[in-house]
Design a protein that fits this description.
- The structure is a single chain.
- This protein is mainly α.
- The chain has one domain.
- 52% of the residues lie in helices and 0% in strands.
- The chain has three helices and no strands.
- The mean pLDDT is 85.
Amino acid sequence: MNDKAARPSVFFTREDANELKAALLAVGKEEGVATISELIEKAANAYVRRLQRKYNGGRPFNTAGETVTLRPGQRTKEEQHRGEK
């Protein structure tokens, strides 16, 4: 990993994590994806590009070169139920 790489934490249910692993084992080589990190990165980047097209005229969301800080951890079950971010 180079010094510019970020290490965000992500959490999956056991079922979802197993599905990711199974997908990687089944088609990772054909898709040019060798690790779970690569698979998640590709998926996340595709999703962000979709959000950019939908909400920002296809342009990147501008961080003005700043480090973006988000709240740590997962949402509580109560927050998930209420649909909070």
